[in-house]
């Protein structure tokens, strides 16, 4: 069961359903701060909302009960933390995964399971027990807390719903004490997945509260917003990981105060740490670790020894499959340390911001890990020669290639890669084909340091690209100011990024992508935007016309399209026709 928390626990007196029943005493502790009520005057105000995404009072999405049989699909949905390793949205499309269909299926089977301790035949305020269970599971947290005050039967049902929760998503506002988090965690003792959206600092007291209140915790994600930070050191994090014997996944942002850490766990399989800086030591003793993501802050005085860290990582984590490291201190020596580890199961490798990673590094990677499915070398010094090596080694495995902000890559190398890699589904070539006389376009804050690597791009402008690929789903040329002409014939392309392609000529753009859904054109010329809109609109009409039935002439010479009224065959089902009519492409300018 998943619960998205929106309010702190309810407080107040009990209302008895039957006057003959003995009155049950309430809690001796304050429902807001957790302190004893005797002689206590609480000064904490009840937050208006504590949900990750504020929901209206009548929303049915705030409290969702998910049986274990149906929750496995939803648990793999993308999180708010973006990593180059995931691309879950593409995986869902490729596997036919439809979130709306899954939610409908979950809603249909959601309440076939109820709490085994609940008396389904009991009549609670005129409602059968099973009907009350079904209704209260659909209430938002505020409604669930209010329903608990109606009568004792409703209060007991609400407690069982909270107690059966397996996932809690909680937003912690500014100036909220640890008692707020503790009170929410105490209501859900069976929590397995915990997601905290911290708008206030996360300190060692909060970490101890989580460790005490969630004995069976398996997945924990902590994200920070605004000026919030994680104020715990590496020793405290190491003790937490060592004590949580069932912890499988740990994802934390804002880890700038760790200083150094030693992580020992025989259950941990996923580890994401971001905003790292100047770590004196990094020791991993996690034999079950399969995915690791380490992002370092872009500061010039970072003294982390990545080579030593990677050597230890290879020795103590032999089952690694996905590696993502983002740091300006990445170098060829770090790549050699990684290749010496001989991680036989490695499938996804992302080494970002390493300007000292060269074609020699690509050669080392290619010789040691020939089964890679994802390779991200964004911000590196790789050239067309390195791309040629990639194409020679990975034609049968590589599906995702990211080479954004690689100043030595030309349009010839990009075109060669699309021709030689038949399984390619995602390709990012942002700011590779750049006009050296133009100022780099504005990018996200996460890419502010990456832009410095493209300053040495001296390629000529007025370059053109001709790409014909049968499997490409996502293609990005953001910031390619040197791109003058683009011809795409990609029947499965669904997402195209042309943001800040300021020199792309409207008359030299041809999009033959019938199922294209999104085209990003922020910062482009008005004439180019108009050309994009015209082409995607014509493609949508053509796609709808192509679904008209066809019939051979009496002499069998050729096939012609005929209206449904003249066709002897039965028309397509109404549901399928509606799906075809909805196909349209969005041109995104924001």
TrEMBL record:
<dbReference type="InterPro" id="IPR001810">
    <property type="entry name" value="F-box_dom"/>
</dbReference>
<feature type="domain" description="F-box">
    <location>
        <begin position="121"/>
        <end position="165"/>
    </location>
</feature>
<protein>
    <recommendedName>
        <fullName>F-box domain-containing protein</fullName>
    </recommendedName>
</protein>
<dbReference type="Pfam" id="PF12937">
    <property type="entry name" value="F-box-like"/>
</dbReference>
<dbReference type="GO" id="GO:0005737">
    <property type="term" value="C:cytoplasm"/>
</dbReference>
<feature type="region of interest" description="Disordered">
    <location>
        <begin position="1"/>
        <end position="21"/>
    </location>
</feature>
<dbReference type="InterPro" id="IPR036047">
    <property type="entry name" value="F-box-like_dom_sf"/>
</dbReference>
<dbReference type="InterPro" id="IPR032675">
    <property type="entry name" value="LRR_dom_sf"/>
</dbReference>
<feature type="region of interest" description="Disordered">
    <location>
        <begin position="545"/>
        <end position="579"/>
    </location>
</feature>
<dbReference type="InterPro" id="IPR050648">
    <property type="entry name" value="F-box_LRR-repeat"/>
</dbReference>
């Amino acid at each position: 069961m998943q619960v998205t928390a929106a309010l702190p626990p309810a407080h107040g007196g009990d209302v008895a359903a039957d006057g003959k029943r003995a009155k049950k005493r309430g809690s001796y502790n304050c429902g807001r701060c957790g302190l004893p009520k005797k002689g206590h005057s609480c000064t904490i105000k009840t937050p208006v909302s504590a949900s990750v995404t504020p929901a209206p009072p009548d929303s049915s999405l705030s409290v969702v009960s998910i049986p274990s049989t149906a929750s496995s699909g939803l648990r793999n949905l993308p999180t708010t933390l973006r990593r180059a390793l995931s691309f879950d949205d593409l995986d869902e499309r490729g596997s036919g995964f439809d979130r709306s269909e899954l939610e409908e299926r979950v809603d249909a089977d959601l309440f076939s399971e109820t709490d085994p301790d609940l008396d389904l035949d009991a009549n609670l305020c005129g409602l059968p027990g099973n009907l009350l269970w079904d209704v209260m599971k659909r209430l938002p947290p505020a409604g669930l807390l209010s329903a608990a005050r109606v009568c004792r039967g409703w209060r007991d049902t609400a407690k069982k719903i909270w107690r059966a929760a397996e996932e809690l998503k909680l937003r912690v506002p500014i100036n909220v004490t640890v008692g707020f988090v503790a009170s929410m965690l105490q209501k859900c003792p069976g929590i397995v997945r915990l997601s905290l959206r911290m708008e206030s600092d996360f300190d060692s007291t909060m970490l101890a509260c989580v460790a005490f209140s969630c004995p069976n915790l398996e997945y924990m994600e902590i994200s920070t917003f605004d000026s919030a930070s994680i104020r715990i050191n590496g020793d405290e994090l190491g003790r937490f990981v060592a004590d949580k014997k069932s912890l499988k996944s740990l994802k934390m942002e804002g880890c700038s105060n760790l200083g150094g850490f030693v992580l020992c766990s025989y259950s941990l399989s996923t580890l994401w740490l971001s905003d790292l800086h100047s770590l004196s030591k990094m020791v991993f003793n996690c034999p079950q670790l399969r995915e690791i993501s380490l992002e370092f802050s872009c500061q010039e005085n970072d003294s982390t020894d990545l080579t030593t860290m990677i050597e230890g990582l290879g020795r103590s984590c032999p089952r690694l499959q996905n590696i993502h490291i983002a740091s300006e201190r990445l170098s060829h020596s770090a790549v050699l340390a990684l290749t010496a580890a001989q991680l036989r199961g490695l499938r996804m490798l992302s080494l970002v911001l390493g300007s000292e990673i060269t074609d020699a590094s690509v050669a080392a990677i290619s010789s040691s890990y020939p089964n890679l499915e994802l390779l991200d070398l964004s911000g590196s010094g790789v050239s067309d020669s390195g791309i040629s090596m990639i194409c020679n080694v990975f034609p049968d495995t590589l599906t995702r290639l990211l080479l954004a902000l690689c100043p030595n890559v030309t349009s010839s190398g990009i075109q060669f890669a699309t021709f030689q890699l038949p399984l390619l589904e995602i390709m990012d070539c942002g700011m590779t084909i750049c006009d050296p006389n133009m100022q780099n376009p504005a990018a996200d804050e996460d890419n502010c340091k990456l832009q410095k690597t493209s300053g040495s791009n001296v390629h000529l402008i007025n370059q053109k690209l001709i790409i014909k690929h049968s499997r490409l789903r996502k293609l990005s040329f953001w910031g390619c100011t040197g791109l003058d002409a683009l011809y795409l014939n990609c029947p499965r392309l669904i997402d195209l990024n042309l943001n800040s392609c300021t020199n792309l000529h409207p008359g030299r753009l041809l999009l033959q992508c019938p199922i294209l859904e999104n085209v990003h054109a922020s910062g482009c010329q008005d004439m180019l935007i108009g050309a994009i809109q015209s082409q995607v609109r014509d493609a949508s009409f053509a796609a709808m016309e192509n679904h008209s039935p066809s019939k051979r002439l009496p002499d069998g010479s050729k096939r012609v399209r005929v209206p449904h009224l003249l066709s002897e065959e039965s028309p397509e089902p109404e549901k399928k026709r509606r799906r075809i009519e909805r196909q349209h492409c969005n041109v995104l300018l924001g």
